[in-house]
Amino acid sequence: MSVIAGQGDAAASMTLLWAGSDDRPRRTAPGPRPALSVDVIVAAAIAVADADSMAGLSMRTVAERLGRTSMALYTYVPGKAELLDLMYDRAHAELAADHAPDGDWRAAVTSWATELRAFYLRHPWVLQVSYARPVLGPHEQAVLESLAGVLYRAGLPSRPLRAIVSSLFHFVRGSAQTAAESRRAASATGVSDEEWWAGRSALLKEVAPDFAERFPMSVRLATEATPMREGESSPSWEQEVDDTFAVGLAVLLDGIAAAR
């Protein structure tokens, strides 16, 4: 289930998002515990979400990671809703701001999309934050600015540019979502993709012996893959997802080139 961002105190969230790095930790009590600051709390929250997904995120779990009580966190962040906005934006800070290798716009967009997809797979909880209402923080905005700059410099007219940017974002998020869910399915069920497909395929032959006649195009899609060399094994489901991303991105880039 997706989480809608921006549900907390709007003024508090936007102020914290745009206040810059809070690198002045302050102690609220003596002792060996780490000093607290907004940055320290946000970093701990990201670590919790990376380890336990959004389901494991709460002010309590973040406080426990820092060796503090939940109440200590509220001095710096009003609540979980505002913390989520900060986490989402701060995570995007690890992405490069510039993608313009030698002025080659296709290489630049490919670099942007590949890095963003890898980012989503490092932090799959980010995909649970709905893109319907952006956080509007500086780091999230820098990702958009980077792509828009590449496409403007490529000579794309303004009219289709917004739709193209949106299409690229949705494509990258969708590809990462599929890959992330594939990883989660195997770990959550204890059944690999290969085992799952083998079992379901065998059952499908029993319950729908006329499947090939009823759905010939579907069978054709599954069987007319690139021929494998002798001794090669079938690609894993994750590899197929990666290959699909590469092909889909190439098609989108061809479409963008046609719109120039």
What can you see in these coordinates?
The protein is mainly alpha-helical and 260 residues long. The chain has two domains: 10-93, Homeodomain-like (Arc Repressor Mutant, subunit A, Orthogonal Bundle); 96-223 and 236-259, Orthogonal Bundle (Tetracycline Repressor, domain 2), CATH 1.10.357. The chain is 63% helix and 0% strand. It has twelve helices and no strands. The two termini are 38 Å apart.
SSE inventory with pairings:
Layout: H1 10-18, H2 38-52, H3 59-65, H4 70-73, H5 80-91, H6 105-122, H7 138-153, H8 158-189, H9 193-207, H10 211-214, H11 216-223, H12 237-259
Helix pairs in contact: 1-5, 2-3, 2-5, 6-7, 6-8, 7-8, 8-12
Strand fraction band?
under 5%
CATH architecture assignment name of the largest domain: Orthogonal Bundle
Please give the share of residues in helix.
55-70%
Write the H/E string, N to C.
HHHHHHHHHHHH
The biggest sheet, with number of strands, parallel, antiparallel or mixed sense and barrel status, is: none
What does the oligomeric state look like here? single chain
User: In the CATH hierarchy, what is the superfamily of the largest domain?
Assistant: Tetracycline Repressor, domain 2
Bulk shape: flat
CATH top level label of the largest domain: Mainly Alpha
Short description:
This protein is mainly alpha-helical. The chain has twelve helices and no strands.
